[in-house]
Amino acid sequence: MDADSFMKAAIDEARQGLAEGGIPIGSVLVKDGKIVGRGHNQRVQKNDPMTHAEIDCLRNAGRIGNYKGTVLYSTLMPCYLCAGAVVQFGIRKVYVGESKTFPGAVDFMKQHGVEIINLQNEECISLMENFIRDKPELWNEDIGE
């Protein structure tokens, strides 16, 4: 699999979250060229403010030992909560679907040696723009506004 395939898997997670009535953000964790964890934002579904896509993905990956060499894919630029998890676990590369709708914590991650590859993927942008337009109150709750 390649970066496009992994981002497609993250987009599939985002679409699943949207279909469940949640926020369309998805993530996958890749180790040795294989997806070892996947997740999507489930704040609404689980009534849990901590269940962001990246956190759900890491939980679902379980205990994988060392995160050296892992790559995280997220449909949206990680927020400070999720960026903190990236830094804490030593994930050194993050592919981001987009940061147009939310700037996230890119500088924080870069300051901690994380390589960010921002794809500005049109499908990711469209998913978030439509969601923000249709459910602004839910989006504002997600980002703490």
Write up what this structure looks like:
This protein is of the alpha/beta class and 145 residues long. Helix content is 46%, strand content 17%. It has 7 helices and 5 strands. The protein has helices spanning 3-19, 43-46, 53-61, 80-89, 106-111, 122-134, 136-142; strands at residues 26-31, 34-40, 71-74, 93-96, 115-118. It has a 5-stranded mixed beta sheet. Helix 5 (106-111) links the parallel strand 4 (93-96) and strand 5. Helix 6 packs across helix 7. It is globular. It starts with a helix and ends with a helix.
Task: Quickly describe the structure.
The chain is 46% helix and 17% strand. It has helices at 3-19, 43-46, 53-61, 80-89, 106-111, 122-134, 136-142, and strands at 26-31, 34-40, 71-74, 93-96, 115-118. The chain has a five-stranded mixed β-sheet.
Q: Name the shape in a single word.
A: globular
Helix content: 40-55%
Supply the helix-strand structural class.
Answer: alpha/beta
Q: Measured on Cα atoms, how large is the radius of gyration?
A: 14 Å
Distance linking N and C termini: 38 Å
The DSSP helix count reads: 7
**Order of H and E elements:** HEEHHEHEHEHH
DSSP strand count: 5
As an assembly, this protein is: single chain
Task: Tell me the β content.
Answer: 15-25%
Produce the secondary structure layout.
Elements: H1 3-19, E1 26-31, E2 34-40, H2 43-46, H3 53-61, E3 71-74, H4 80-89, E4 93-96, H5 106-111, E5 115-118, H6 122-134, H7 136-142
Parallel strand pairs: 3-4, 4-5
Antiparallel strand pairs: 1-2, 1-3
Helix pairs in contact: 6-7
